[in-house]
Amino acid sequence: MNSYPSWIHRIPEMIEALALLDREWVDRQLVESVFDLRKTAGFHLLRRMGAQRCGNSLVIGRGPLMARLREAHENHDWRG
After folding, report:
1. Sign of the torsion formed by the C-alpha atoms of 46, 48, 52 and 55
2. Residue 36 in 3-state DSSP?
3. Residue 31 near residue 45, CB atoms below 8 Å
């Protein structure tokens, strides 16, 4: 797998989209639709960002996801 995911250059717009959401929890399906990602890319994004299993899904709080995306954006040598 590439060190840098395909979505890394879109982090500012991803954070902006998350800020507009009215949901506290983010799962793979939401990540796919909001960030326009494929299933596998959505899964890998959530794993890299520290999402936890909840039943058969990966979920992460909107706030922590935004914070981790900001960190990834600010840390240019980020490897996830």
Report:
1. positive
2. coil
3. yes
Confidence at residue 1, expressed as pLDDT on a 0 to 100 scale: 45
* The two structure tokens encoding residue 53: 């299993």
Tokens 């979505």 -> residue: 7
Judged by phi (left if over 0) then psi (alpha if -120 to 50, else beta), residue 30 lies in alpha
* Residues 21-71: tens digit of each pLDDT: 999 999 999 999 999 999 999 999 999 999 999 999 999 999 999 999 999
DSSP 78: -
CA-nearest of 13, 5, 2 to 49 is 5
- What CA–CA distance (Å, rounded) separates 14 from 8? 10
